[in-house]
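Researcher: Here's the sequence for the chain we discussed earlier.
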Amino acid sequence: MPSRLGMLIPDLLVAPVRECAESDSHIPAALAELVVEVTSKSNAGHDRVSKPAAYATAGIPLYLLVDRWAPGGPTVTLYGEPKGDVYRVLRAVKFGDPVELPEPFGVTIDTSEFPVD
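Model: Thanks. This is the structure I predict for it:
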């Protein structure tokens, strides 16, 4: 996915199948409905600061951060309503609590089985 930071490759991207089938090398950010990043020790800062700013700037409606290395303990944060390079926090839960994704997804993710190191 192109961005002002270069090419970003999220851990998971959700976009309409019909649109993605026409892309041979990358998916334009404008097609993404949701991106997901899972932090590791080496990239946590990038996933918390740089990537959400780039995704918000691109207008991606939802950003889900699965942060195993959050300072207060593992969390899942759903960001939405991008304005400029900033998202609003829609939901934030500790591992073990469910996180609900709004429509068009309308699903609840059970985080009780997420690994904690």
